[in-house]
Design a protein that fits this description.
Bound molecules: zinc ion
Low-confidence stretches: 7-28
Strand order of the largest sheet: 2-3-5-4
Largest sheet: 4 strands, mixed
Shape: globular
Distance between the termini: 19 Å
Number of helices: 27
Amino acid sequence: MRFTLPSLNLALRLVGACAFALLAPAQDAPGPDTHGIVVANMDRSVKPGDNFFEYANGNWIKRAVISPDRSRIGVFTTLADLSDKRTAALIEEAAKGGAAAGSSARKIADLYNSYLDEAAIEAQGLAPLRPHLEAIAAIHNQHELAAALGESLRADVDALNNTNFHTPHIFGLWVAPGFNDSEHYAAYLLQGGLQLPDREYYISNSDLMRDTRSKYEAHVSAMLKLAGFTDTDARAKRIVALEHAIAEKHLSLSDNEDIHKANNTWKQADFAAKAPGLDWTAYFRSAGLSKQASFIVWQPTAFAGESALVASTPLDTWKDWLAYHLIEEYAPVLPKALADERFDFFGKVLQGTPEQRPRWQRGVVIVNRLLGDDVGQIYAQRYFSSQAKAQAQAMVANIIVAFRQRIEALSWMDPSTKAEAQAKLNTLYVGIGYPETWIDYSAYEVKADDIFGNVFRGSLFRYHREAARLGAAVDRKEWSMTPQTVNAVNLPLQNALNFPAAVLQPPFFDPLAPAAANYGAIGSVIGHEISHTFDTEGSAFDSKGRVRNWWTPADLAHFEAATAKLAAQYDTYRPFPDISVNGKQTLAENIADLAGISAAYDGYRASLPGKTAPAQDGFSPDQQFFIAFGQNWASKSREAALRQQVLTDPHAPAQYRADTVRNVDAWYAVFDVQTGEKLYLAPPDRVRIW
Ligand SMILES: [Zn+2]
């Protein structure tokens, strides 16, 4: 599971979903001479016990302005911006060097420049799209429809690492270590077929969702019209009705997160009987998967339902659906009229963002998505020192020791369960900064004047690369994030963690900051990721990444009772009067936040002996620890973006993540929090899990 909202990886597909922010004013981040917590960002008129988020970030919140091209602003988006600027500079250097054809520098430059060349894109018009639309128009029967659907399969979902359950294609492929054979890569198939972010957008009866749906239908019609279709209102109505029918077959996000519901092995020959309707032989053949004997089907009922819809819905409706989905997918690299219409709906309506990000920044997103490791290799060399790496590794070691001690001290956990938890810590791979091996892009052809083709070939390259690994031995040290990504991730099937270079920088991590601030900020992120190794998800995978429930029933019962209390606590948070945080949907992440800060605090205390821990602006080191944690969550969202997050993301909104501290005993003593203050919980009501 990733640590926070995705920033880069969905950018091409969901224009509105990325969360960049303008670089915050200089006083918002520690400058070159300030290290540690940023006192100027706090609001000391707020009592920490009433609202810890505002206490730590109140003055920042008052000053921060979400620029017109953003849906939110915060520490993560500020750092993502910095990472983008650095990446753009690397790309421009690559472009200047006159690098040889076929070299990595040439590809980076050609990909970026082909996106920036708007005049060429306008001049080509719809020409790059036309052969694909003609192929769809030539579909005559169910067999050919199944082949076209198979051809659209991409490796664009990820159930457990980057937790992306959304694909607009009818299904999505995820290649990862097998649930039942963790030594080899298996093929996971996930539900898909929707353009809106989640089934809720189709099914909810709220006024807001009904309004969104009618705007969506108008948008579908507009896109078809811009692509040269006639009778577009009627076509749009049928496409949206088909998506609605698909949505009704989909599982909800909290069901998707339950891996016990997902471990369903189907032989290729089983599909026709278990999910009749789609011509599966044709589907797998054109997806290049005829020889793949078995698959893990994440949502069997959705596969049965969607496959039945292939047979029961008129062929012409499916052809329109295919055409519309193709246009939508490539709109960001088509003429401005289509790109703008796409943004007007997915950016403005769904995210509340008035303007698109500058084109150079969207270009960086595309390069990161399609050639991310080539860029990342240079990025890591330039921006991540071996000294920073060693210091981060020392913090990880202290936090792992803290986890060992916490597990040993648990009174409720069976000794056999404890032994396996310790074994998981022994085999845990913690990647710091950058991976040990890099993706080889030599089979990916990039042309100087063909952005449409570059993007098309890029997603196909990724698909072929992933599919080619099926059945191969697993590389447990492989990364799932690039070094220039501002995020962190736990890879449960590999029993591994990745902390990219771009998140290991101020304000999260600063080699010159007091240990208290580093442990409170990045230490709690490290603790968060380690704790996923043992949570509801981690408890399903053993030290070798195999699906094996290594908890006793009594352990599980205790864990579920303790975590139900935390779910209930988050259910009470209401970002808007008509909507509350979903405690169940966000539970795994909330547990990880709580475990993360607890272990980071222990790790910090353990790092102290023999060192002096200075006060900063009158704040004791322990206070700095908690304030640094709270400042991780400095964040402001547009209403539509926040509503989308509450519905579609496994993470609670940032403000509530900061208030996790109310479950930590040490926080009460450090800030003298008293009964009657809003966040106060009586000791028995504080949730203690690890
Ligand atoms: Zn997480």
